[in-house]
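Replying to the earlier thread about multi-chain prediction with a worked example.

Input:
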Amino acid sequence: MAVVTAAARVLGSSRGLGQDGLLLLRRLGVRGLAISHPQRQQQHFSSLDDKPQFPGASAEFIDKLEFIQPNVISGIPIYRVMDRQGQIINPSEDPNLPQEKVLKFYKSMTLLNTMDRILYESQRQGRISFYMTNYGEEGTHVGSAAALDNTDLVFGQYREAGVLMYRDYPLELFMAQCYGNVSDLGKGRQMPVHYGCKERHFVTISSPLATQIPQGEDALPGPAVGAAYAAKRANANRVVICYFGEGAASEGDAHAGFNFAATLECPIIFFCRNNGYAISTPTSEQYRGDGIAARGPGYGIMSIRVDGNDVFAVYNATKEARRRAVAENQPFLIEAMTYRIGHHSTSDDSSAYRSVDEVNYWDKQDHPISRLRHYLQSRGWWDDEQEKDWRKQSRKKVMEAFEQAERKPKPNFSLLFSDVYQEMPAQLRKQQESLARHLQTYGEHYPLDHFEK
Amino acid sequence: MAVAAAIACRLLRLHAAGAGGHWRRLRGAGLPRGFLQPASAGEDAAQWRRVAHFTFQPDPEPLEYGQTQKMNLFQAVTSALDNSLAKDPTAVIFGEDVAFGGVFRCTVGLRDKYGKDRVFNTPLCEQGIVGFGIGIAVTGATAIAEIQFADYIFPAFDQIVNEAAKYRYRSGDLFNCGSLTIRAPWGCVGHGAVYHSQSPEAFFAHCPGIKVVVPRSPFQAKGLLLSCIEDKNPCIFFEPKILYRAAVEQVPVEPYNIPLSQAEVIQEGSDVTLVAWGTQVHVIREVASMAQEKLGVSCEVIDLRTIIPWDVDTVCKSVIKTGRLLVSHEAPLTGGFASEISSTVQSEAKLEKETGSSDSWLICGPLTR
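Result:
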């Protein structure tokens, strides 16, 4: 605390420290102020000293009564690289990625889009129980995933399938999880879209999503922050990224996560997909401040707002955040503005709370896939012929995986009981045996043929 | 809450002022002297004391684990934590006020010994503490979280029940947070009132995927805590706060384990089975000797130790022998864990047992198609 006051005096700053202040602190070897030993907080000051001495804030006195006005008319500006037609605005911000990489962006986003269409339909036809599409948000997934290392740990909410897609999670496994078939790594225990992959460092999606359960999403910032702390201790050179929507950001867990990440100096990227709706709740009913980005500085977190439909803006911001989070052991908050073009899920019909015109605008005028396609085309890296071919090809790939997934049986029913604990306790084993006996007697009433023996 | 904890500390310190040991000056404002006088003076106080009391009964010195040292319960906890951090370089301890030693002094000396990146304070937020701990455990490191009072565990209930308990199951064993242990002071202390006395084990008993453990003594506490920390499932370890100072016995200095999910028959008997855990074990022991003396009733006394998964076999075996069961706990009667024990014993300890019928399974409720 004494150091901060000294620094502030040296630099003459009255509103916090800024860059110079932070540099000074670093040179003095002070990392975080929150974890200072109590004795260091004792300062020697006399009553003649009129500067504030409160341990809780570094600030000057003011003798004019003034409330700080929250700024929501002109909020934190939105960083973008391309305009809505996919043209680079400021060439110095173009990441100048190689063709192969940008094509991978495009193909990941479009393959995801194709898979979404087919799986949404399959739910409508009763083949899977539930589905959530990612329409309109593909840019947020792919731009951020591309900026990370493959070993960076991902904690998602439920609308981040593009991250897995970018990490080459096979269609077979996406389908297996949605069908809950015998190939599902999650052993058929969760609803569709609750993907997880240890190899690709994508922690299994949690959160009850059935629409009757009012609890809503479990924002996972807490665990993500803990994982980041452990990565820091292990000198792993790894960042953790935690995705969540603007609705989940209202949960107490989000507040806890931000505060812990900042005080415990964790290398974590908080990536908020602000898509305008939490099921039917528009942002005007979700918060009154300037979105999520404005909350970051309140926790002492470096924050930025980006155009989530601009895959290069997302990429640039995530790349820089990752570099600094690891180098400086501090959290970053990225609020990616986007729009949820699809319904919340197959249990939702969004025409009940928003106009078709609004949705069409985003679909036609500001879509991450179209913007990237325009960019690709203007570079001569893509054309209509390739587009046609790729659409056919990707549809074929998805249909093949889909048909195969449908044919596979479900996991054996005894898997209901494993993994509750690492070892199966005696009571659970008794219950497992009881089910087996029950099915021996009454098996004809159960669709046992669909389950692996 | 922090003020109450500080007061609790000072009151406890005064009661045990004669116990010796090192006393670090607690920083902060002192309270008026009159407020701190022990309540032992005066006949009224003595009468009041007799109505609600227990006498801690130490177990004989354990000989099979090497050199022992006289420790009270919080010192036994410190010893277990010390052993864990020494053995396991990934282990970290965190929670409110653990850095200076903790409001019940369970973490005294550990920050100096192991460093500030391993023993550190968190902001005042139980859901954050547990969520954060889950994350550490997901990466495979050992997370030992402290909740300042079990009464304050409820903000973390969602993280415990919906996240920690289900992590392994819902991911098909791809991920788990088995290396998470949550410790919290638990149970009546005399002056704790509504929010420093609760025994919430029954809320968690209904949650498959976690383990819940309550020790009755310093020796039990160290061995059970070490087992919890090493167990590959998330564990909640409730420490009877009234025993922190009141319970003193010889405890091995080196690490040792007491198995989880194993109840202990601490006294054999033939007429009735008495089951309890934590502080109440000592009350029940006294009851057993009174029953023997005054009624000629021979009691078998069982310390349950692990609440879930609990040792059904030991309890049932005992009840089959004695034919009678009494379960005693501090927590409220309705929906308390005694109801689980009594209904299970009634259905399982029948001599002619029927199989099948109304089972409800100890699983998390997966999606089946």
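Confidence is low (pLDDT under 50) at residues 1-39, 351-369 of chain B.

Feel free to reuse this layout for your own posts.
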